Amino acid sequence: MRTYLEISLDNIEHNFRLIRERAGSTAVMAVVKADAYGHGAAEVARLLEDCGADRFAVATADEAAELRAAGVTRPVMILGVSEPSRAPELAELRVIQTVGSLEYAEMLSSALAGGDRKLLIHFAADTGMSRLGFETGDADAERSADEIARAARLPHLEAEGIFTHFATSEIPGEPFQREQLERFTRLLGLLDARGVELPTVHMSNSGAIFNIPGARFNMVRPGIVLYGVSPDCDMLPCEGLLPAMSLRTRIVQIHEYTEPVSVSYGRHFRSDGSIRTGTVAIGYADGLHRALSGKIDMLVHGKRARQIGSICMDMSMIDLTDIPEAKVGDTVTVFGSDGEASIPVEEVAAAAGTIPYEIMCAPSPRVAKVWHCHGKIWESK
């Protein structure tokens, strides 16, 4: 296998049980959008459904349909916006659609006219992300409560819940968290005064589950922590989590240069003298960002080999001078564990000046997946 993701479903199960214990009696909506952050949405959702996940969250209508096609039966919620024309399909699939405005609610209801099914919806409240949802500032809360009340009475919609999203949940003690919680609680009070009953209320994302116990309401939405990674490189690791993903490739050629050489496009790396280099079968078309050129190590036989020269579309080069046992065909770990050694995905993210989410979502479709679970191993087709 050229380049592949090795995914431990056992570790995801461990992380889920840890989160379930942390959440107590609160329901758990497992976030499996973006192909479960690169881990394989169908495989992860089927596992977590068996483990007792109450619901699942995705980003798009296609992602929701994929879970239903994979046999997932628990409630599935779309966190993003779907084309109103897909409302009948979503109602048929019993998928929950996020609604962030009265206008959008009216469009969904109109698209369902003439049918006999209602579309389940959750209202999104914008308490500080400035991204999606009904506004909750001092000048907007009353109006938003009125609009939500109107939307909840539309004939072809079934309003089942309401939620919001923290902007800084991964930062322990950050003051804006309290402001968002207060805005959300105030909106809930305004809706209660209008007789709007929304039985499912959720606010806590991954960071909040560990940092803000007062924001759990009756459901939490773990995302990246399910996959064993903290929400931010600067956050203290969430105790007990086990990383589930390793990115691996192989050495396809080795060169022994006895004189100084330059390596790859632009000749940005030049050796000082003799050097032993390995060409590995991963490049930016596989999801290894070119911006990481010369900034990361890879593991070979449990030892660190620095990446040298510009990362190419399909290949990149590493320095094997201090790993004489390395040979063509050997496994190379870009991030993950190799024996006792490891390169955390957070390290790669920091080198790229980004967050672990982006690194885990980066591998392209040509990167195969290999899952491990309860002693069984299988590959993506």
Provide the fold topology.
Layout: E1 4-8, H1 9-23, E2 27-31, H2 33-37, H3 41-51, E3 55-58, H4 61-69, E4 76-78, H5 87-92, E5 95-99, H6 102-111, E6 119-126, E7 134-135, H7 141-152, E8 157-163, H8 176-193, E9 200-204, H9 206-211, E10 219-220, E11 245-257, E12 262-263, E13 269-270, E14 275-280, E15 297-300, E16 303-308, E17 316-319, E18 331-338, E19 341-343, H10 345-352, H11 356-361, E20 368-373, E21 376-379
Parallel strand pairs: 1-20, 2-3, 2-10, 3-4, 4-5, 5-6, 6-7, 6-8, 8-9, 9-10
Antiparallel strand pairs: 1-11, 11-14, 11-18, 12-13, 14-17, 15-16, 16-17, 18-19, 20-21
Helix pairs in contact: 1-3, 7-8
Explain this structure.
By secondary structure, the protein is of the alpha/beta class. It has two domains: 9-226, Alpha-Beta Barrel (TIM Barrel), CATH 3.20.20.10; 245-343, Lyase, Ornithine Decarboxylase, Chain A, domain 1 (Beta Barrel), CATH 2.40.37.10. It has eleven helices and 21 strands. It has helices at 9-23, 33-37, 41-51, 61-69, 87-92, 102-111, 141-152, 176-193, 206-211, 345-352, 356-361; strands at 4-8, 27-31, 55-58, 76-78, 95-99, 119-126, 134-135, 157-163, 200-204, 219-220, 245-257, 262-263, 269-270, 275-280, 297-300, 303-308, 316-319, 331-338, 341-343, 368-373, 376-379. The strands form three sheets. Strands 1, 11, 14, 15, 16, 17, 18, 19, 20 and 21 form a ten-stranded mixed β-sheet that branches. Helix 1 (9-23) packs across helix 3 (41-51) and helix 7 (141-152) crosses helix 8. The longest helix has 18 residues, at 176-193. The chain is elongated. The model has no long low-confidence stretch (mean pLDDT 96).
